[in-house]
Design goal:
185 residues; alpha+beta; 2 domains; 19% strand
Length: 185
């Protein structure tokens, strides 16, 4: 009974990680398409929990070897572990290669790519490094972009240019036309 529940739980986890893998993979494909249009970019920051991800990937690889190699189980019995290994051992490290910053068609923030037309609001937070807070039009989940100090002025200039070209537009319910959106940067 316990083994049955564990197998079902691993199957459910596998399906969840399959969805996450497809999302990360879609982001990587998008990056490979837009990387040639980079305006101002810098390497992604290493996440604080990267060592945990590497340890998880190693443990999952060991479990997969035991299940498939030593116990001679079918691949379907290791589906959950395979999906988790693919996420932690392959796709997360690959996603760290995605350069953050400004591209011709949008911004690559910590949560993925956001086209300029999809930005509903922006704000800056001063922390050790400036952080650009981007509010998407569709989902009201703020996306963060930590901007290195040496790219800060360039980032503000790009945002002002995109607003001036009406690629970023902050439309409110009551727009009387007396507000210059470039001042919002």
């Amino acid at each position: 009974m316990t083994q049955f529940l564990a197998e079902r739980l691993l199957l459910v986890l596998g399906v969840g990680f399959l969805v996450a893998n497809l999302q990360v993979l879609a982001g990587l494909v998008r990056y490979w398409r837009v990387r040639g249009s980079a305006l101002v970019i810098w390497p992604a920051r290493r996440p604080a929990n990267l060592r945990v991800f590497v340890l998880l990937a190693a443990a999952l690889a060991l479990v997969i070897v035991v299940k498939l190699g030593l116990q001679r189980r079918p691949v379907s019995h290791a589906f959950g572990e395979l999906m988790m290994f693919l996420y932690y051992g392959v796709l997360v490290p690959l996603s760290l290669k995605v350069a953050r910053g400004f591209y011709a068609d949008g911004v690559w923030a910590e949560g993925g790519f956001l086209p300029y037309a999809g930005i509903a609001g922006i704000s800056w937070r001063e922390q050790p490094d400036p952080v650009l807070m981007l509010i998407p039009r569709r989902r009201r989940v703020v996306r963060r972009l930590v901007v290195p100090r040496d790219h800060y002025a360039e980032a503000r200039r790009i945002l002002r240019d995109q607003i001036a070209e009406h690629r970023i537009h902050f439309a409110s319910e009551l727009d009387l036309g007396g507000h210059d959106e470039r001042e919002d940067v």
